[in-house]
Structure of Small ribosomal subunit biogenesis GTPase RsgA:
Amino acid sequence: MQGRIIKSLAGFYYVESEGNVYQTRARGNFRKKGETPYVGDLVDFTAAQHSEGYILKIYERKNSLVRPPIVNVDQAVVVMSAKEPDFNPNLLDRFLVLLEHKRICPLVYISKMDLLTDSREMEMVRARYEDIGYRFFSKTAELPLVLRDRITVFMGQTGVGKSTLLNQLEPELQLKTAAISDSLGRGRHTTRAVSLYDVCGGKVADTPGFSSLNYEITDSESLTAAFPEIKAASFSCKFRSCTHTHEPDCAVKTALEQGEIWQQRYEHYLQFLSEIENRRETYQKLSKRK
């Protein structure tokens, strides 16, 4: 039989096939080959009556995320709050860079807009990102249509309201939520495991909240490719390996000066590039010590 893993818990993999869910385990040969089944995997499996089945084959994946450990994702809804916690454009760009690198379609949902006394700045930010090509949402009713027939991951900073939003979309989920800690200014972690839920005609994963992430980019070329507007301008750079920092005839810096690239996004690009270079230097120093 063939199906998709929709939940992983304590060594068991729950596979959905033709409307039924089967409890399975992975055969030992996967461990020998260094392979691990993940939520989202398409698999061949056995399903004996009144006993657990076994996963026999894992099909090739089109993408994967480390946190959450999930594969074959069609799109991701990045949930960012307008307030409590305050909107964080740097963190949003980190999520967008990760998703662009993984070739996962990003959608941005802004929660808690009702807490703003003046929404003009938030609307300006939204317009800037939409000019780049990103889709923004701020109303629950806007989401059902884009979730249908898709595998979607909801991700974002702790406390922005991912579980609350999913409960509004599908009240039967009854996902746990936690209030913002007054002393810390952020939410408690309420999501413990990754599962795919039936929501609005699609499959949705709620993920553990986190306030930072390390994306898997190790060079300037890959980072450039993860900023669509910088990538588009970079084709006209004089040097193919241009880092858009100090090189002459850099089309990206020209586009920046002409207002075609948002200054804030360029500054985030420079910050992420610096982090990549620092990680590389640290790795090289550690390698020399060995």
The radius of gyration is 21 Å. The mean pLDDT is 87.
